[in-house]
Amino acid sequence: MTEPSSRRLARRALRTALAAPETVLRRLVGPAPRSDRGHSLDLEVQVLLRLMVESRLPAEVLGVGRMRHDYTVQGPIVDFPPDPRVRVEERRAEGPGGPIPLRVYRPTGVDAGAAACVYFHGGGFVLGGLESHDGLCQALAARAGCVLVSVDYRLAPEHRFPAAPHDALAAFAWVAAHADALGIDARRIAVAGDSAGGNLAAVVSQQTRGAAHRPCLQVLIYPATDLTRSEASHRRFSQGFLLDEALLDWFVKAYLRTPERELRDPLASPLFATDLTGLPPAHVVTAGFDPLRDEGEAYADALAEAGAVVTRRCEESLIHGFFSMGGVLRTPRAAFERVAVALGEGLAAAR
């Protein structure tokens, strides 16, 4: 899959700008913000935020169409470029609302019977799709050494809750049922996702408990687990760190039909599930300057208390969305590599 030349040029220009001496960058953005835990915001992330803030309009002004365009076209500038070692194939799964587009990534050297990961993209249940996360998925498949299946679930507000979790469950079931045709091992299929996608990965792990096919591992990257947004990090990081309060309000309003009933539904907020026993091992990653930080950590705690094997890491100097910034920014790239290692090791342990 060929990447647009404009994106390559923009990525190159951003890398050049970030290669300026630290003293120059620091004069540009000023002192580093510090979190409530005493950690400084990564300098390259701070520069990126400065560039974005100067050109960003509120979601209410831009509207759904423009937000989706920008997320899909501009977001991948900081993400990984296509990897020629990864073969890409389009598939479709049967879903409750019609066919669900899937994109299958198979790295060179990954043979039939390999482990796999079903990946759910982020974007607040409103934005994103196969294209927005294409570079990330290619890189994750290559680094983890597995087949990766990206799911293009239905988006709000055209398709409100529970369309997204229903599609996620249908896609996972389809992948497991067609494991032989996909050349994967049905016993070693993980689920993973970032933000809203982490929410869906958690939901699939809960809802398939006791099923014939269930994930062997869940990798949750700054997952949205509590749509009531009652944790303290929502107040600490409500402004200035990319995912702000106004944008979260916009996402939730678009996603839920009747918030008073749905906010605490485990299909929307997996932290509210009353029974978390018997769930697959989890690797939970949060970010230190993320409003979703505390709810992700609360979910990791709840899983561990229920007896799940949980590994966790907070990338203290980073913000929400860092997982898609590894093509340009160094600290997010290192964080991405740690997630890829955890996914690969978790799939290997499931043998």
Concise overview:
With 351 residues, this protein is an alpha/beta fold. The chain has one domain (21-349): Rossmann fold (3-Layer(aba) Sandwich). It has 13 helices and 8 strands.
Chart the SSEs and their pairings.
Blueprint: H1 5-18, H2 22-29, H3 43-53, H4 59-73, E1 86-93, E2 100-107, E3 114-120, H5 134-144, E4 147-151, H6 163-177, H7 179-182, E5 184-194, H8 196-207, E6 218-221, H9 233-236, H10 245-255, H11 259-262, E7 282-287, H12 293-305, E8 310-315, H13 330-349
Parallel strand pairs: 3-4, 3-5, 5-6, 6-7, 7-8
Antiparallel strand pairs: 1-2, 2-4
Helix pairs in contact: 2-3, 5-13, 6-8
Distance between the termini: 32 Å
Order of helices and strands: HHHHEEEHEHHEHEHHHEHEH
Total tally of structural domains: 1
Strand content: 15-25%
Q: What name is given to the CATH topology?
A: Rossmann fold
Oligomeric state of the chains present here: single chain
SS elements, strand count = 8
Any idea what the CATH superfamily is called?
Answer: Alpha/Beta hydrolase fold, catalytic domain
Low-confidence stretches: none
**Rg calculated over all Cα atoms:** 19 Å
Query: What structural category characterises the helix and strand content?
Result: alpha/beta
CATH class: Alpha Beta
Trace the largest sheet across and list its strands: 1-2-4-3-5-6-7-8
Approximate helicity band: 40-55%
General shape? globular
Number of helices: 13
Architecture (CATH level 2) name: 3-Layer(aba) Sandwich
Largest sheet: number of strands, sense, barrel closure: 8 strands, mixed
